[in-house]
Structures are given as C-alpha cells and as structure tokens.
Fold each of these.
Amino acid sequence: MSLVEARDITLSARIGDMSVEVLRNVSFTLEAGETLGLVGESGAGKSMIGRLFSQLLPPGFAVSAGELIFDGENLITMSQTKRRRLLGKRIAFVPQEPMTALNPVLSIGSQFNEHLKRLGVRGGRARRDLAIKILSEVHLPEPELLLGKYPHQLSGGMCQRALIALAFAGDPVLVVADEPTTALDVMTQARIMALIAEMQQLHGTAMILITHDLRLAAHVCDKILVMYAGDVVERSGARDLLADPRHPYTRSLKRANPTISGPRMRLPTLPDQMPGLVEFSNLSGCRFSPRCPVNADACRAGVPAMLEIGPGHDVLCVPACASGERDISEVEAPPAPGGNGTDAPLVELKNVSRRFVTRGKWFANATTVDAVNDVSFAIGQGEFIGIVGESGSGKTTVARMIAGLDQPTEGQILVRGKDARLQTAEAKAERLETLQMIFQDPQSALNPRRMVESLLTQAMEADHRNHDAEERGGRAVDLLREIGLPGDSRRRYPSQLSGGQRQRVNIGRAICIAPKVLVADEIVSGLDVSVQAQILNLLLRLREELDISLLLISHDLSVVRYICSRVFVMHKGCVVESGPTEQVFADPQHAYTRTLLSAVPPDDADSPWPPLFSESEADVVRAF
Amino acid sequence: MLRLILAILLRRLIVVIPMLLVVSVMIFVILRLLPVDPIAMIISPTALPHEVEATRAFHGLDKPIPVQYLIWIGNVFSGDFGNAISFRVSVLNLVGETLPATIELALFALFFAVIIGFGAGLYMFHVRGTVRETVTDVFSIAMLSFPDFLWALILILLVGVQWAILPFTGRYGPEFIAPDITGFIFLDAIITADGPLLWSALGHIILPALALALAFAPLIMRVLKSSLTEVMTEDYITLARLRGISEWRILLRHALKNGVLPTLTLVGVQFGFLFGGTLLVEIIFAYPGLGNLMVRAIRNTDLPVIQMAALTYCVVVLASNTVVDVLYVVLNPKLRKE
C-alpha cells in the first residue's frame, strides 16, 4: 500500500454564486521515502494540494469529490481532532517564508520546547537536550546559544534550517515543503535543498515538494506532477520529465527559463498568463488551450483524457500534440547586447566604495561595514551589463549609488563624463535624462491612486510647463504600445493589472523620457517563469528599438546570461570576477564564481544537484 | 535587559527635564495673561488700594512675568514650590495629599479597563464571523460614545441610589480616620492591618474607577480584536496550526503575545486621557483627589496651585509613557538590540 494515495480529488470554491473547480481530478501516489514534486506557476493549484493534507483551506473551499488516503485513512473525511493529532507528528510542513514562519516574540528555544512538549517529550531537560541534538543535525552552529535567540537575530537560511529541524523533530513519515527556498538566494537554496535531502535520508521520510522551478524539482524529486490551472497536465518520473517533457505547457515552461550552459535559445513566450479562479468557469475543454502554442481543435471541444505515453508518464493532452510532432520550433537567440566599445561611456564608476557606519548607541560601539569596496566599471551605449551575487554582496548598493539614491564614500561616479555629485539644476536634469531606475517590486513602486496613463508619464511632471495634458496622453499611448499593453489599460489603476502587466508599466515609466541607461534591480525575480520570459524579451526589444543600455542586478545567473553581454560577480562588496558573460560562465576563474554557478540547478537531469560544497570551497567563500 | 531598561530611563530623563521646563513656562505665562486677579479673591472687599498693593507685593505678583517665573523656578529647584494663595498652605502639601488618591483611582480604573477590555476583546475575537460579531460590534461602538462622566451618573443612580449597594461619595467611610503614612489609603490600611478601612476604601473606589474604566475599555477591546485578527493571518500562526498546536494555545501563546503590542501603545497613550478624566469624575463622586484640588484652585484663581497641579498631570503622563516604553522592550524582543 502506498503511503499517500490521492484519488480523483476535485476541490471546489464558492466565488459569489459561482462554483469553480480549483482542482480537477488530481490523482497521484507517493511511496514511503519517496519525493514527489508539484510544479507550476502561481495560480496552478499546487499549494492547494499541499493544503489538502491539513484541510486548512481558504473559506468557501471544499473537496467535492475524491479521497486522499494517508496511511490507509482518508484525510478528507477524518475528524478534525484526529487529523490534528497527525499534524506535526506524522505529517510535517516546511513553509515558504522562513523569516515570518517563526513567532517573532518567542525565543527559538521556547518554540522548540512547545513543539517537543506536544510531541510527548517529557521533562524540560530532555526537551532541551533533544532540541540541541536536532539543531546540530541541521548543521546550525552553537545550538545551545541559538535556543536563547529570537527569529529576527537569524538569517533567512538559519530560520529555514530551524524550521526544517522543527519539521523533522517528530520523525514524520511525510513532509510537505511549499516553496521552501523561493525566498532564499541561490547559494542558500542549494544548501537548504541538500539539507532537506539529507534529513529525508536520515529519517526515511517521504516528501511533497511544491515549487515553481522545474529544474530544481527534476533534480531532487523521484516523480513530478506538472499543474496548470487546477489540472495535472503531466505526470512523470522526474528525470524523464526534464529530458523529454511532452505536454505543450511543460515544454513552454522548460524553455521559458533561460539556461546556464549550452546554446542560448530564444525564449518562446506564451501569450497572457495563467487564468485566475474567476476565469476558470469561462474555459471549456483544456484549460491551457487559449495559450497553447500547438493548439488542436479537439482540445477546445472537451478536456482530453490522461494519455499514457510511457511507463509512469502520463499527459493530459491529445495524442497529436503530446507526441511532439507539432513541436514549437526553437530559434537560437542573437548574442546579448554589447556596446560597440568606441563611444564614450555613459556611466563610469571609478574605484567606488561605500562604507556604512552605524552610529554608536548607548552601550555599543560604532561598527563599519564595507558594503562596496573599490568597484570600477563603465556602461557604454546599448550595452547590457549584469551584476550577480548573493544577498548582502553589495550589488543593490551599487545600483542605488548609480541612480543617485546613495553617495559613494570613496571614488567617483561619472555620468556622461560629469561627476554625479554636481548639484546644479542643469547637471541634475542631465542625469535624469541619462539614467532611470526600475524598482524591484512594481506593487509598491507604482502609486495605487494613479492611473496607468499618469504613471507612465510621471517623469514629464519634473518639467511640467513644457508638457500639456494632450502631449502626456499621446506619450502614454506610444509607451503602452512600446511595452505591449492594450490601449484600454490607459485608464486602469495598478490594482486592476496582473503582476506582469504592472512590471511592464514600471519599465514603461522608466523609458518615458527616453533615458540612455536603465538601472534595474531584480526586476524579474518576483515573476512567474513565463511572465519573466515576456519581460526579458521586452527588454531586448527596447534595446533594438531605442538603443538603450541596461544595468541588471540579479541573483539569477541564467537571466543574466540570457540578456547581458558582460557580467560582474560580486562577493562581500568586491567584484571578484568580471568579463564577457559567456566566457565567465563557461570558464569561471574565481572559486566563488564556480561555487555560485554550481548552486544553479543544471539543465541536464543526470548531473547531480545539489552539489556537496567541499570544505575547501566553503573556506574560500568564508575567508574572502 | 536591565541595562537596556536603565538606558531607556536615562534617555527619557534627559528629554523630560527640558520638556517640563517648556511646559512650566507655558503654564506660567498663560495663567498670568488671563484676565483674573488672584488677589481679589483673598482680600477683604473693604481693603484700601495700598493694602491691595501690599498684598500683591507680598505674593510677588507686582513683578514682571519673566521675573516672577525666574523666582518661582528658582524656588522649585531648591525644593520650595511656594504657598497656595487662598488655602494658605504649602502647594507641595496640597498636591502631596491629593495626588496619591488620584493615582489610586487611575490605577484601579486602568485595572478594570484592562480586565473588561481584554475580556470583551477576546470574546469579540472569538465570535468573529458570526451574528454575535455584528451585535458586539454595534454594542462596542455605542459604548465608545459614552463619556466617563455619563457613566459616573448612571452608576450613581443605578448602583448607588437605586440598588444602594455601593457608596458613592468620598474616599472611605466617615467613621474612619485615615492613618497618614504614605498617603495611599490602600497601602496605609494594609500597613496598619486595618481590614475595615481597606474594605471601605475598596467599596468607595469601585464606582468612580468603573466609570473611568467603562469609557476606556471599548477602545482596548476594539484595538485588541483588530490586532488579533491581523496577527491570526501571519505565517507563524498558520505554521503553528500545521504543527498541530491547539487553537487555544495558538490564541493565548502565539497570537496574544503579538497582538498585545498595539494595544499596549494605545493604553500608554490613552492613560494620559484617563488621568485627565479623573478630574470630572472626582468632582461627581466628591473624591478628594488632584482633580478636586484643581477645580477648587481654579475657582479661587489660586495660580501656584493650578500651575503645580497642571505640572503634576504632565509628569504623570510622561511617566506612564516611560513605563509603556519599558514594557515594550520587555515584550518585544526586536527592540532589545543594544
């Protein structure tokens, strides 16, 4: 008997007076010790499957058909008390946001104490000893001291380790991990995934891993379900899925994600985005068909049956499309935009350093942090440059200094050959015309009380006497076309747009007064893979049409490889390696670059990942 | 932790002294610019002009206002708060006699308000999403619109007169003579082991304290309910559920500890209003506190007493804010960074 067996589960939600099927006919099995991946973009329903185990569903959601058998018992019909007895003991959860998943006013020790008490460990001394034991199992240094600390004193990675320790404390048979590494950077992600695998081995635990990252899932899971709008569209062994995806959605998902090695293929973009819950009822037949690149008439007539195309490999598609005969053609991408090297640089950094000094408080001494240390580079006309590094490496500080939001403590920044510290009205105006910044989170960067039209042309307000309303309206129409939004979105508010559309507006706003250089800080990291591909292609198109330059700050190496011709690798405030992106990624010279690259899940399903960080590498990283 | 609390107190003290100086100047100047003459209240109607001037000079009221202020503040720094004009006793004695009574009243009121506010807040939170929520919501808004003096009148009429189960004038029964040790009647009664006095004082303080508390409690309960509702959507609450922790434990141990922080801020800010509210309530209940003294002083335009009483109110508000700051550090580990 399987540990978990889901049989044709349909989850319905009541929205207004409509009933919407949030999940349709979800079936899978999970054996003891096995790992199942649930992959898909946001809105696919993968987190809902995770929630089925606890039955902590949003109001109005209920399972309308099917059963979820855990260890011989149906979790859905089970009484609440009985189910609660399983939670934390036999079924444990690892959450998405480690920083907010621990109670901020309770010490780590008291949270462990509470959990272990519930698990039935008697005696404060015994609980303390056990807590120390499991905290050292997850490789947290000095567990005795850690018990007295509070969550805000820990890094994201350390919080996640503590939460993993909590999850495995009760020796559960099943762990449900919902995007456990999404909030963490690449290096921490690789380490946390390695840790989860290790704990799974140690305790013989089965796991359900919910993730948006197909490659990551392919490397750590035994089998994978690909979800789209509440349907399981493909079900397969993990390696098989990455090597030979069959469903058009899985194939698009794989290709929409740029690669870290091999030929650079042009990212195919799907139109629009995943439909929202309210739109589900308007979709007849296959829910993917409106966006499907290989679309057959049969798909719209009715939902295709699960098609078995190999041992343990099923696809929810019509035979003609699933066979790959009508595959989308792949085109090699043109080289990433580089400068011609002859023009004078638009922006130049000369030995720039930024030192933060925290003021000495009542009983504490002042401390200094070198956030950026002796960084020099230049951005030429039309050049796309990337800065990569872990969080805390100083890459955002560089972007802020270039945008004029912060000043270097040493060195000089030149914008079109003039010192960026010049405060004359003329110099300020010239800097604004040259440089525009695109912020990371469009949700908070766009004023929610302004319409798209006014947001897009906000930059014209700086010199409002020269632009009347009519001119602004005209410019807004041009910009909408430029960023690929329909004309009628002019009169909408940011809350009426999707995440991808908001990021488009955010970009459109930056190019309003036709600047020469865009400084973009992590502008695609919060987006779904298919939307990310749309935005990356938009940036490339803007380069072609406007001859714009871009400084992209990103922790995602594959994104940088796709659009940047030169890359700077930053570590602890220093640039440790720089050069043409292809060359740096293909033949990294610095140990840190190599470690960073090895932390990215490779495209080849057979190469092992997550890597075991060897001691020497770890030393290099630490000693630097 | 202790070091941090001391640091807060020290920092507060440094801010408080200049603040009190500014407040004292404001009170002093405003009182002297008022078109009232304190001398007129104490002098006999038949006094001759030169007698009036002599009295005025005796009290120093003939000097320019800045000079008057400097004399007064100089005396204050040497511990002399001056004499009341109409009561003919030291201002310090007057305030010292009445302040303990008002502090007792305010603390009892705070205690009742917290009990009622937290109880009702938890109940409102508990019934959220049901019909009873709407009922409690309407009820709490109605409560919110009742001022303390109205509660005082209702309580007197209902509990004091109609049912006649609690006394409603004074601080303790007329048959007792207070042992004046600390000025705090409850403390004194305990020190002298005077059970009947303690009992009588307790009976006397319930109604005025309750009047103040009933006006304050609806605020606490509404803020507590809304902050609990917000905290309950946090990730760590969801994860606690996923760990199988019981709902009661989640509420009391996880949610309340976080949800109490905004409530505490409110209590700290509002305590000043509550303390100010004692003024009217003391008059209604003939309770011999600072508020009663203040009203009598205003009636007699006794400037030294008014300014001292006003400054005392100011000090109490600053002190209560400091207590809240310290409590915040104790309850919120994020603020414990040294």
Amino acid sequence: MNALAARRRHPAAIVVLLLLGLLVTGGAYSFLAPKDANAAATTAAADDVAKGKDLFIANCATCHGVAAQGTKSGPSLVGVGAASVDFQVGTGRMPLAGPNVQAPVNKVKFDDEQISALAAYVASLGPGPSVPDEKYTTVIQPGTPENNKAIAEGGQIFRVNCAMCHNFAGAGGALTRGKYAPALDNTTPKHIYEAMVTGPQSMPVFNDMNLTPESKQKVISYLKAQESQANVGGLTLGNLGPVSEGLFAWVFALGILIGCAVWLGKKAA
Amino acid sequence: MNDNETTDQGTGTSLVRTSGEGREVLPASLITGVDQFENPGLPPHVHRAADDDPAAAKRAERQVATMFALSMLGTLVFIVSYFAVPDEATFFFPGIGLAKTQNVVLGLSLGFSIFFIGIGAVHWAKTLMSDEEVVEERHEQASSPEDRAKAVAVVNAGVESTQLPRRPLIKYSLGGALGLFALPLGLQVAGSLGPTDIEELKHTIWDVKDNGGKPIRLMRDPEMTPIRFDEVTSGSVFHVMPETLQKYLDEGKHVLEAKAKAAVILIRLDPDLIKVQKAKDWGVDGVVAYSKICTHVGCAVGLYEQQTHHLLCPCHQSTFDLTEDCAVIFGPAKRPLPQLKITVDDAGYLVAPEGFAEPVGPSFWERAR
C-alpha cells in the first residue's frame, strides 16, 4: 500500500485511475444488463401457419395480442407481411429483450424454420410484403462494365434516399432521443431488402413502386461492393467524417504538441 | 510613473538596481525590513553537466549531430522512396490496418526529417548554449528631445523638397487618385455579398411559368421517373425533383443550381394526423410535399422518422413536425418548411399546379419584399 500511496501523485496516476473506472463501469454493466429471454417454444404442428400461430402465442402474444391485433405494448401485426417478421425476428430485434427507445440487433432466438412458420402465420392475417425473391437479393459483383454501372447507380440511389440517416458509407447515424439508424455493414442482402419494403421502426417505407426491386438490388450491391473494397486509408474511425477525424486530430496531434511544449519548457539538468 | 515601481505599495517593492553582473534581484522591502513575506528571489543557478565537464559537452555535441544526421537520413529515405515505392503498393500497418505504402513512408520520412532538425536544435540550446539568467534594465521609451527635433526637421525638409505645400493642384489630384483607388477594393467585398438579381433567390424550377403554365410532374430523384399517386403507400418517402429539371440535365448546364432549390420530399401519412387544414388541402389524402431545403442555412432536410412524423436536418438538428405543417419544434431554424401544393392529374400522376407560394431555403434580407 505504501508503494501505491507514494505513486499517487505520479502524472500517469490520473490516466490509470480513469481507465480503471471505465473498466469497472463497463464490466458492471455487461454483468448486470438484462439477459436475453430464452423462450423459444418448439411445438410440433402439421402445417406452417398452425405452427407459426403456436410460436406466436408462446412468444409474441404478450405484447402483440393473442390475435396479433396489437396492445398498448406492441403494434398490430395485421398486414405487416412476412417480410416484416423475417426482418424483425431474423435480425434478433424481436422478441424484444426489454423496453427501449428502439429494438436493437440481438442474438437470433429462432431457427430458419421457426422464423418462416411465424412469417407464414403473420402473412395469413392480412396482405403485406412477402419475403423477397432471391433473384433481387443476389449481390451484383463488380467487374464487367454493366455490373459496375449498376453498382454506381445503386450508389446514386443510396445517396439520395438512404445516406442522410445511414451515413454516406452506410456507417449509421443518430436520430432524436436515443433512436438511431443502424450501420449496414453486417446486414444480409435479404434483411436490407426487407427493411426497405417494410420500414421498420423509425425508417420510412421504400416500396417496390418507389424503388423497383432492380433498384433495391443495385443499392444492396453498392453497399456490399463498398464493404469488400480495400480501404488503404488506414483507420476508418467509423467512417463518420469530420467529427471522429477532428476528435482524433485534437486528441493525438494536440497531445503530441503539448508533450513537445512541456519538454521545451523543462530546464536542462 | 517611474518604471521601477509597482502600482500598489509605495513602501517599496521596487526593484533594486543591480550591476550588470548580478543575478540577485531583491525587492527593496527586504532591505528596509518591512514586515512582509520573505521574497525567495530567483533559484540558485545550477550548472549543467556540459557546463563543467568537457566530456559531457562533447557527448551533447555528438547527440545533437546524431539528431541532425537522422534528419538527413529521413530526407534521403523520402527521396529514394519517392521513386522506389510503387504507387499501388499496400501493406498491413499494425494497429491501423491496410495502408498505402507510399503515403506512409513519404509522410513518416518527411515528418522524421523535420522532427529531428527541431529536437536537435532544442537539445543543442538546452545542453550547450549559454543558460545564464540575465537582468535587463528598463529604459525610457521616448527618444531624447534633440533626436526628436532632428527627425521632425528631416521630415519637414522632405515635404519642402516635394513642393507639395506650394502646389495644391498636385496635392489634391494625388489625394483624389488615391482615394478613388480604394473604392474597387471595397466594391469587390460589397458586390460579393449576394446576387444582384433578388428574383433569382425567390425563383425555383417548380414555377409553372417554366413549364408553359402547365402543372409540373413530380419525378423520382435520381431516376427522373414520374410518380403515380397510388404508388405512394402509407409511411412511404419519395425524394422528388420537378419534371422541369430534365431540361437542365439534358443541357448539362446549371444542374446543381436548379437542383439546390428544387429538392422536395414527398411523404404519406394518415390524413387524420395532419392538424393543419391548409397542409391537408395542399396534399392528396395524406400525401404531402415539402421543400427539402432547411430554412436555417439550406441543408437538405432528409431524415424522416416514420413513427414520430418528424423531419430532421442533419446539419444543426432542426426538427420539423409534419403533423403541424412542418412547424419548427427544435433547433435553430426559424420558419416552417414551405409546402408544395400537389394534385393528381388525369393520368394518375402527382403534379404541382402552382409551384411554391414563398421562397424556399434560408432567409435573406429582401425575402418579404
């Protein structure tokens, strides 16, 4: 303890203390934060809709109502379509782990078969967008001139329709009151497509008459092409533009300058 | 005031004049013995290793020379790698990721070469150059009266030799020429404060006069395809440009100027949510169109939250409430976004029959006139 006390005025002490504080807070949060409820029911049923209905009643009815008519805690699911279910459940956003401003991406709690059963049940409640055709969720690979042109057009559509919320590089961004547009880099083509047709949460709807399926395919291909492109600029700093880059320059460049100034001001021994 | 005195106490904190040699500067109070804190004075001068030990001085000299040599090495690396490193070469930089070899090598080598010149010079100053503290006396700022009189005489003689006092024609014409010459400088500043034609600021290409008086179709941006009313489903957002933009796109001229003011966002929400009758009337069954140009400083307001029906501006977070005719509910914007009146034409396409009723975008002085 004496050794510690002797070093408490060391210039590095404050840095060490800050790091320690952050570590303890972060550790405590991850330990205490609500865990995923594991309530996947496996009920064998003859056909998809019936199986989906059972799954729905076991996992979703608390908030969405037994007939998916909606309650105070959750919206009605009549007419949201299979695409909506496939997106919300397939990305782990639903079932919601706890009340929050926005459903975050989470561990997926159902297997593919269960998700399609749930989707079939919800789709049977009323007409809505269906899970997209694989033809339009296949990524166009760069290489040939016409493919490159399609990807460039996808970039144009992305910048006009999506970039204001999802950032020019698809890195995501903040909305109001803690809501946010998520980053798109780890989202599968199918889920990007479904988000566009269903407009989950704060996102508006981009139906197939607004952006044609071909246009959506181009947008997806643009995002994936951007992801696979080699970035030789070193750290991306989250692709957030001047804010993170400016902060980096202020912290590191100014740190070095202050270090130099301190050394300059010190008397030589 | 005497430059040897401080302002507060007459009793004597004035400095004792020391001879040029002296390092001890003590306030007079210590000498007169007034009851005050003891002035510690300057700390004793400590000799550096290189001051007394020739071996240490030699070592410091070598250190400085080494730093300068490292700087030379850095510059040589820069020159060599400028030619030697191929443009497309990349490598993995630990902690940073994939990086372009040429950028990293050129930047670091040039950085090191200037850095080592700098720290070499500082190390030289700190170890070898004299570090004696020197007391310098203050002097009267003004020159002596004789010197001043001499200077005035020189100036007067100069004025006399130009004959200016005797030749007013030259004096006034020179004054006029110099005075007039200042005008163009000011004129450029004043002239660049804004467009001379104010109508240009108020005009957008939604003006039906640009379309021969016919209603203008709403087109998807960037595809430039017309939008049918039934395509705008609930919760949908369309980013819109006028049909009249096509002319600019075809000509390839002034496209950005035309686009900058014409950008419109088309949204469909439940008509019962719209609380303002005018906003309902100017739309079609909950489909409403608003200028996308923020009334604060003109950024594109594109962030639409489907659940709250708020439109956000990404630049300064101005927030417009779509249910209240785009009234400002947060942020620095002062006016609501102008609404574009829309109807459906015979073919089922959305059209703007009148253009904007007020100038779009940020305020300007002549806006109301």
